[in-house]
Design brief:
The protein has 15 helices and 14 strands. By secondary structure, it is an alpha/beta fold. It binds 4'-deoxy-4'-aminopyridoxal-5'-phosphate.
Length: 441
């Protein structure tokens, strides 16, 4: 039997059974809300390169790549060899190892804003430690962040991540909205919410809070905002204004390191004071990283008594992640980035073509190796514009289902992230499936 004939959800026996079992012991059956979709998620069994196979034996091209982290797809041989070798020696230890120096050296060499690095286990932790570092360095409590941006689950970084229209406040002066029930009002009071790409309004807010502001947290290509890129004048204003008021510019590169060999900071020509990292630097294993100038990073120093920012973590810089990350990053040569970004462009162009042929409104969004298909035809310039896209959720869910049943694994938001083993063939195959799916809507 060709397992790719198995229809989701009707015939996905093993996934459905696992979901029912999971519901008894895991809320909504999972540990991560992004993996859930209705009526039940597909359970993964194995992966190889750009392919992922589910527990019913159905094979798909993986465009999620563990939410962009698996930049070389599943189990790249060089990374697996490095990990297998490491497993014969040491998995975790209460001592530093050479492996963390080697990965830090690579990041320092590539990223303009990074002279020193500290490792953690997730992007959430990286953002949290960057915020704490900015506070300790400036001895100020507040941070500023952009409305509708995702930076992980640290309380302060979560403010106004996904606010409802009733919580918005004025467009040029967004309110600080909670992200979970019972979120302490004190966390909201210490976060200044900025409107995206609105230079005068954001600058006025930064100046108003100047004496309390430790840092400004920015993602150059916010995924939850359908990839509205940072405008050059906004980026320049943030860089100049943070300098002027003595606050730190924190560039969250957990996602955007995929931009290119020198990260988004290299591509955009901006040098942040602090960089939060994650995802691709772990080579497929849990990771986070904080980087900055030697001066700023000295807040973590422990050799002069109590550190200004204590930083522990049982699995920080564990050697399995470190060797996987190093090998994976070494494989990311400038040519590899060219390949990824070219595939991303082919996908975006192809999706636009599909929409045109199918006579549908919509847009292909994203940059570099990030791509998103939206069936919403109106301009999206900031988070608030996304509300209009809500009426396309059902049509997108239908297209998602079609793709899942035709060999393509994407998210219900129709996000496509490239991996190095992919070629034009996988992109063109996917575009054919998108076109038939669009025609059937
Ligand atoms: N910051 C950004 C910009 C992210 O995209 C993410 C994860 N998608 C995070 C932080 C949090 O990273 P993690 O999931 O590893 O905690």
């Amino acid at each position: 039997m060709n397992h790719n004939d198995i229809r989701y959800p009707e015939q996905s026996e093993h996934s459905e059974a696992l979901y029912e079992r999971a519901l008894r012991v895991l809320p909504s059956g999972n540990s991560r809300q992004t993996v859930f979709f209705r009526p039940f998620p597909i359970y993964a069994a194995s992966g190889d390169g750009f392919r992922v196979v589910d527990v019913d034996g159905v094979e798909r091209i993986d465009f999620i790549n563990n939410y962009s982290a698996l930049i070389h797809g599943h189990r790249p041989k060089r990374v697996m060899d490095a990990v297998a070798d490491q497993l014969t020696r040491l998995t975790a230890v209460g001592l530093p190892t050479e492996s963390e120096i080697a990965l830090a050296e690579l990041l320092v060499e590539r990223l303009p804003g990074v002279e020193q690095v500290r490792f953690a286990n997730s992007g959430t932790e990286a953002v949290m430690m960057a915020i704490k570092a900015a506070r300790a360095y400036t001895r100020r409590p507040k941070i500023a962040k952009v409305e509708g941006t995702y930076h992980g689950s640290y309380d302060f970084a979560e403010v106004s991540q996904n606010p409802l229209p009733s919580e918005w406040g004025p467009a040029d002066r967004p309110a600080s909205a909670p992200n979970y029930e019972g979120q302490p009002p004190s966390t909201l009071a210490d976060v200044v919410v900025l409107p995206w790409n609105n230079v005068p309004a954001a600058r006025a807010l930064l100046l108003e809070h100047a004496s309390d502001l430790a840092g400004v947290l920015i993602d150059a290509l916010p995924s939850r905002m359908a990839y509205v890129p940072v405008a050059a004048d906004y980026l320049k204003m943030i860089r100049d204004t943070t300098r002027e008021i003595g606050a730190l510019f924190i560039l969250d590169e957990v996602y955007s390191l995929r931009f290119g060999y020198h990260g988004a900071q290299g591509t955009l020509g901006v040098t942040p004071d602090l960089t939060s990292m994650g995802k691709i630097i772990g080579g497929g294993f849990p990771v986070g990283g904080i980087g900055g100038s030697r001066d700023v990073m000295s807040v973590f120093d422990v050799d002069k008594g109590r550190p200004r920012v204590p930083h522990g973590g049982t699995y920080n810089a564990n050697p399995v992640t470190m060797v996987a990350g190093l090998e994976s990053m070494k494989m990311l040569t400038p040519d590899a980035f060219d390949h990824l970004n070219r595939l991303g462009e082919r996908m975006r162009q192809g999706l636009r073509e599909c929409l045109k042929i199918a006579g549908r409104d919509g847009q292909a969004r994203g940059q570099a190796s990030f791509c998103l298909l939206s069936l919403y035809g109106e301009p999206i310039t900031a988070y608030r514009d996304l509300m209009g896209a809500a009426k396309f959720v059902e049509a997108q869910a239908k297209l998602h289902r079609h793709l899942m049943n035709n060999g393509v694994f994407t998210s219900p938001t129709l996000s496509f992230t490239m991996s190095t083993p992919m070629t034009d063939r996988e992109i063109d195959f996917t575009l054919e499936q998108v076109l038939t799916g669009l025609r059937a809507l």
